[in-house]
Structures are given as C-alpha cells and as structure tokens.
Amino acid sequence: MIVSTINVNGIRASVKQRSPENLGMLPWFKETSADVVCLQEVRADDEQLADAVAPVLADGWHLASAAPHVRGRNGVAVLSRTPFDEVRIGCGAEEFASHGRYVEVDTAGLTVASVYFPTGEAETERQLEKERFMAAVADRMAVLLDSGRPSVLCGDWNIAHTENDIKNWRGNIKKAGFLPQERQWLTDLLATGWVDVVREAHPGVAGPYAWWSWRGKAFDNDAGWRIDYQLATPDLAARVASVHTERPAAYALRWSDHCPVTVDYA
Question: Domain named Endonuclease/exonuclease/phosphatase: which ranges (predicted)?
C-alpha cells in the first residue's frame, strides 16, 4: 500500500495548466504509484471537488471528502484506487464536525485519515482553536491506536516538530507552527506509540521539507518547513519500505506551495 499526502492549496488552482511545461496536478495522478492520496486545503465543496478531479475519477479512483463550512477555506479528501469500506467525517469533536479538516476512510485493510490543522496565531483565539483541534485529533488517535487496526494520519499539521523541521527556526520560536506547546504536544503524541515515518527514514538531518513560500527565493534556497506528516501505528510503520518527498525539479513546475510526501508500506 503506497500512500501520498499533499496540501493542494486550492484544488481548482492546482489542476489548472500553468505553462506549457507545467500542466498542473492531473498529470501527477497519471504517473503516481500511490494507492491512496490524501488532499488538504481543497477549498471547494463536494461538487466542485468532484468536478476538478473528474479525470482522476474517470480512471477508476474513488473519492471521499469533507467539505468546508466556510466557502473557499479548508476542505480535505481521500482518493483511493480501491473502494471504501467506510467513510467517517470529523474527528469526533462537535466543534469541528463541519469544518472540513478531517476525513477518515477504511480501505484495503487500512485506516487512512486526511487532516488539515489550523494555522493558528500566537496568543490569540485562533491559537486556542488550533489547540482544541489538536486535543480532539489526539483523542481520536488514541482510539485508533487502541483498536489495533493499521492506521495512518496524513496531512498538513501546521507544526514543525524540531529545529530540523524548519530552516529558519530561530526566527519562528514565538510564532504559530513552532511554539513550544505545539512541539511538546507532538512529542507527547509520538510517545504514545505513533511513528513519524518520514523522520524515521531521515534521522538527524534538516528536512526533507515539503512546504516553501511562493515568495522570494524560499524554494530555490530550500528554506522550507516540514509540516506534512504521515503518522502511522507501530505495526504499519514497521512495514515502511521507502519514503519519498516529491520536490519539483524547478520553481516553475510547482502546482502547490507544498509537494507530495509518499510512503510505501510494503
């Protein structure tokens, strides 16, 4: 089972042809070996999303999505080559049930969730909302871990865990995404048994980053953040055969400000 995750930064923008060399996201789907693809920040309702990925669905993929409650924001989805046995929207907290931040599927003997954490903003209500969402997701992950079912949560967590996960860590110590309490929350979550499979495959090194600002020379200088995670249950993590961060070869070939993160669970 090969699983990819990508924040598309707007599904309708990501599928558009940007240049003769950059045809958008759809050719990536033609070439990917992934069996399951998790999407975040689709910024579309269910009908708009299905229309944007119509060529993918025509190739036999199956779609599950959680539309955002605010037009043009959030939205997550899972595309799978195999049918879904079950689809669950939301992580169990009533506050976030309609926010389009969490969708979970059972397919091919695996539970896969696509999750999009709030950005937050230090010392504001936005940060408190983010932390409530973090707590709700942790509660759901505890249930999944206790179930014994092989599971993986994929997505944009909007948290860089360590100094190796953000190029300019010194300049972001007091900013959302690298706050001490966010980083400790992730440390505590991993201590329960979940495995950051990308970091396990790249121990003790900077990156590999999967988000770079559109502005300036961030991409060219690889001044990025590693905020796109796949957290797997221990039994599933033990099956990892390869991890690949699909960084485009050039700025002009980007169809999102993130890039796909792909893991082969052999």
Answer: 5-258
Whether the pLDDT of residue 72 is over 90: the answer is: no
- SS3 string, the chain, reads CEEEEEECCCHHHHCCCCCCCCCCCHHHHHHCCCCEEEEECCCCCHHHHHHHCHHHHHCCCEEEEECCCCCCCCCEEEEECCCCCEEEECCCCHHHCCCCCEEEEEECCEEEEEEECCCCCCCCHHHHHHHHHHHHHHHHHHHHHHHCCCEEEEEECCCCCCHHHECCCHHHCCCCCCCHHHHHHHHHHHHCCCEEHHHHHCCCCCCCCCECCCCCCCCCCCCCECCEEEEECHHHHCCEEEEEECCCCCHHHCCCCECCEEEEEC
**Model confidence pLDDT, tens digit, residues 242-260:** 999 999 999 999 999 999 9
Please say if the pLDDT value at position 218 is more than 90.
Answer: yes
Q: Could you give the residue numbers annotated as active site? A: 116, 156, 258
Complete domains list, the chain, with CATH: 2-265 (3.60.10.10)
> The pTM is what?
0.97
Using 50, 70 and 90 to split pLDDT, how confident is the model at 106? very high
Point out the annotated binding site for Mg(2+).
7, 41, 156, 158, 257-258
